[in-house]
Write a structure and sequence with these properties.
mainly alpha, 4 helices
């Protein structure tokens, strides 16, 4: 996973966005890649990272969408 982390850091550094936004996206992606509960998504994420779709990844992971449960 260290190579994937390096790719994330390098890829997001190329984007002309606020560093805080980029850092949030990278942190979120690291969480998705490491969390066993999200392991089913790992191959898809790795393919998108390998393809260098940094704008798509930034848009998808720079914030956490709140989850509300219905009662």
């Amino acid at each position: 996973m260290p190579q994937m982390a390096d790719r994330l850091d390098t890829g997001f550094a190329r984007l002309a966005v606020d560093a805080e936004v980029s850092e949030k996206a990278v942190a979120s992606l690291h969480q998705w890649l490491a969390d066993e509960a999200l392991a089913a998504y790992r191959p898809q994420l790795e393919r998108v990272i390998e393809a260098g779709c940094w704008d798509f990844l930034l848009d998808s992971f720079y914030r956490t969408i709140p989850c509300q449960t219905r009662r």
